[in-house]
Amino acid sequence: MHSLAERARGALEWLLRVAVIAILSWFLVRTILVQRHGAVEDAASATLAQKLARWSTVSSPARVHVRIDHPPAGRERDWLAALPGTGTEVDWSGPSLVPTAISVEPRVDPARGADVSVAAPESAMVVLSDTLGVLDSARATRTGIRGYVPKLRGTVDAIVGPVVARAARHDSLELRRLLVIGQAGWESKFTVAALEERGWQVDAHIIVSPKGDVHQGKIADIDTAHYSAVLAIDSTAGRYGDRIAAFVKQGGGLVMWSTAARARGLAALAPGSAGALIQDEGDVPPDSAPRSALELVPITSLSGDAVVLERRGGDVALAARRVGLGRVLETGYTNSWRWRMAGGADALARHRDWIAGLVALVATSGRHAVPAAPSDVAPLVTLIDRLGPATKATEGAALDPAVIARWVFGIVCAALMLEWASRRLRGVK
Amino acid sequence: MSQFVFATAKYASGDWESAPSLPEAVIDAVVRYTTIDIAPTGVYVDLSSHELFNFPFVWMTGHLPVRFTDDERRNVKQYVERGGLLMIDDHNHDITGQFHKTANEEIERIFGKMTRLPKTHELYSCFFVFDDGPPNTHHELNGYGDDLLHKYLDAVLVNGRIGLIYSSKDYSSEWNFHAETKKFMQQDPTKFGVNLIVYALTR
User: Is A217 in contact with A202 (CB distance < 8 Å)?
Assistant: First the structure.
């Protein structure tokens, strides 16, 4: 009669024998599958560099799977992309990678800043930094993030989680002059002043009387060789209508105050018509919304290709359109000078920036390529371009066959030794 | 608010209203010679009020001592720095007079020493051409006041642009008449006023 302990040991020995058979069977099937489909190895971002060296020297697996938690450096990415050439298929997964892209465009502005646009998933936190450190951070909206960097040092990074999109400026701009045309008045005076303070060289034709006007600078032919943009302050600019139209079609920029759209020669270029004047109340332009206190000649009857850039209440205050190779921006704020004169402490600078911003939206310039630091403006896109789309993480590909064989041998030996020892200790052969 | 409005400065001290007909005479000249959109009547604007900043050209005159209040001083400084043009004219045409001394002290306190405008400055050629600099007034020529012919105007320059003009020429007396009187004059004495306004509006 066997005791309870002996029956338990017998059961354990039986289980060990079953386990050994099961492990050997699994290993046999896996070996057959590997021989049929090839070996699969994998790597994580942290071990990728070591694995790449191994896959290129010690072993040459049929397939590798890389679990990426941050986009690999260019060297590693290129190395991975080259592996298929040696017979190793590469796939990858990276569920934490966020699609991110960055663009840096030099602004047509003497301040030499740059417009930075970042595409990222809505509400993702984006950190902008340049070579010297963090510039700013913000949550992405539905249309991403758009910002202005006054001084660009080296490259600009948009960091979204583990993804770093990097861009550098590739162009140097050659600015032409600006031409301001309008009736003598505060808007023309302060527009010229703001642009000159910004660093623009400004020619002006200010209409004073039928007998004599005020000219600033030697007004040249209105073409893109001489001017980056023309600013038409009011309908008196209509006397240049044909030449301005030819300039815009050639690629030049035009900023027109909505009252200028009343001029026959300029109406065809305007994004819209001039509506009825909404007088200002003489209030101090508030810092929070300075243009809310300005008089407005709303832009109405928009042309089909016009893009609204700003509204005040239900009225269109800024609109733009393309004409030929050039761009036309129309503003309904016809006394923006009050912002500069009567606004808050930093009104002078903010008005200057605003006027310069309007010009930058349309102005043209010569461009020269400059040597730029290496960049990766859309790391995930580049990765997909080089390696193909991501796949799901491959189950069971975590261990390479050599490691598995050692573990199988060890486990089987241990189980058989235990089973043999158990039998011997209770006197069974 | 886009229309040019001739504004005369009110200040706490002195007799700021001493040339009540001057705006009318200058406005008449601007209408007569230019197409500038100008309001038919002038306004008075308090130097200490924020309303000052709605009028980028302001005329200031008087006979009596000028002592700016702190608010006036702060506003005048900011006004000039932002692009306004303040024209100060000594109604006494007397450099030993109280207006001249005190007004110059105030200007120097706010801006430092003024610059003497050369006769070639564009102020004298931006519309009408005055080859010999600022035109003389009958009060200078008749020996009133300090009995001097002041050949230059002084100015505060901001980025090369005139932000403040100081005149000892007494245009406040010269131009202080009803506009219809011009038909009895051989020459319109307010032509230089047109230059002041054209300069203010275009530079």
Answer: yes
